[in-house]
């Protein structure tokens, strides 16, 4: 069961989201509703929350300003009136972005994504089989890109971990480090995006933003400047969009 709160100054919008939550009562439990971000901030400091449905445009403190104040925010689904905040919103790793009026099927897709994210967060990272450096057949530091498996050295403890290439959903750049996101695990490595891309099959992994490379096998849909993968929505950068779309196979 995922506990959740609603933060929105629009009473009608809160009612709509509450009703949608109630329809999936075996999956979600609503534990609070708040008319402004300041009230929500105070609660989040003292209460464990799994998911927050958050509006952007609110008086005194906007939804994005609230996210800036949170050191460890819960899963966040933005529910707002337009798409103009989408790119900025995903810099805060929000799980999804819903535009009002929200339809039930779109709401359910967002919940599915949140459930996968929470499962990944709660699943301990499992290392691959123990190997010696001399035995590594394909470490991500200069080997061919068509291997079924790759091996990476993790940032935190220096372990060498085996990853199945087809399990990689997307890669996110964070300064001098890259986070590799798989369906259930994530791994932080010291590298550059360009270097990682050289070691992965170009037919599957495409750069869509200065901070993101995506495995096309995990793309659910493309809506405007957003790519919806199975575990997260990712922005498409203006300078990458044209080339990325050219590489897709359209019917």
For the termini, the CA-CA separation is 40 Å
Quickly count the helices: 7
Largest sheet: 5 strands, parallel
Q: What are the low-pLDDT stretches, counting only 5+ consecutive residues below 50?
A: 125-145
Shape: globular
How much of the sequence lies in strands comes to 25-35%
* SSE order, one letter for each helix or strand: EHEHEHEHEHEEEEEHEEEEEH
List the defining traits of the structure above.
globular, alpha/beta, Rossmann fold, five-stranded parallel sheet
Task: Write a structural description.
With 251 residues, the protein is of the alpha/beta class. It has 2 domains: 121 residues, 3-Layer(aba) Sandwich (Rossmann fold), CATH 3.40.50; 115 residues, Beta Barrel (OB fold (Dihydrolipoamide Acetyltransferase, E2P)), CATH 2.40.50. The chain is built from 7 helices and 15 strands. The strands form 4 sheets. It has a 5-stranded parallel beta sheet. A 5-stranded antiparallel beta sheet has the order 10-9-8-12-11. A 3-stranded antiparallel beta sheet has the order 13-14-15, with no helix packed on it. About 8% of the residues have low confidence.
Topology diagram in text:
Blueprint lengths: L1 E6 L3 H13 L4 E7 L2 H8 L6 E4 L8 H7 L5 E6 L5 H4 L6 E4 L4 H19 L26 E5 L6 E5 L3 E7 L2 E6 L3 E5 L2 H6 L6 E5 L2 E4 L3 E5 L2 E4 L3 E3 L2 H10 L4
Parallel strand pairs: 1-2, 1-3, 3-4, 4-5
Antiparallel strand pairs: 6-7, 8-9, 8-12, 9-10, 11-12, 13-14, 14-15
Quick gist of this model?
This protein has 251 residues and is α/β, with parallel strands linked by helices. The chain has two domains: 121 residues, 3-Layer(aba) Sandwich (Rossmann fold), CATH 3.40.50; 115 residues, LytTr DNA-binding domain (OB fold (Dihydrolipoamide Acetyltransferase, E2P), Beta Barrel).
């Amino acid at each position: 069961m995922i506990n959740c709160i609603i933060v929105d100054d629009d009473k009608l919008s809160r009612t709509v989201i509450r009703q949608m939550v109630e329809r999936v009562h075996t999956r979600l439990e609503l534990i609070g509703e708040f008319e402004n971000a300041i009230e929500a901030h105070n609660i989040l400091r003292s209460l464990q929350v799994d998911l927050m449905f958050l509006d952007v445009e609110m008086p005194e403190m906007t939804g994005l300003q609230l996210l800036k104040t949170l050191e460890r925010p819960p899963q966040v689904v933005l529910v707002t009136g337009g798409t103009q905040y989408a790119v900025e919103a995903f810099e805060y790793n929000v799980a999804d972005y819903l535009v009002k009026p929200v339809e039930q099927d779109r709401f359910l897709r967002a919940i599915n994504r949140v459930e996968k994210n929470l499962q990944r967060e709660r699943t301990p990272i499992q290392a691959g089989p123990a190997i010696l450096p001399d035995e590594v057949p394909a470490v991500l530091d200069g080997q061919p890109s068509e291997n079924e498996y790759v091996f990476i050295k993790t940032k935190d403890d220096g372990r060498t971990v085996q990853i199945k290439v087809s399990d990689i959903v997307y890669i996110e750049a964070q300064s001098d480090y890259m986070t590799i996101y798989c369906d259930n695990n994530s791994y932080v490595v010291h590298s550059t995006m360009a270097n990682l891309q050289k070691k992965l099959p170009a037919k599957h992994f495409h750069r869509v933003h200065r901070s993101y490379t995506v495995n096309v096998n995990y793309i659910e849909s493309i809506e405007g400047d957003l790519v919806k993968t199975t575990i997260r929505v990712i922005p498409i950068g203006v300078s990458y969009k044209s080339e990325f779309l050219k590489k897709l196979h359209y019917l």
